[in-house]
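Model it.
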Amino acid sequence: MNEYKVGQVVRSKAGRDKGQYMVVIEVVDEQFAMLSNGKLRKVSNPKKRRSNTWRRRIT
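Modeled.
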């Protein structure tokens, strides 16, 4: 079950951007979403990431 929604803040837990906060721009399917961090990955050029490489930010 996909628990991620557009506009949700998540934190990367793998890759070059490990530890960075990102925003879900689009949910592609159960496994993938388009993410943007606003610095290197602008909203106009989001990164397609698998959902097991990031987690929801607890607020």
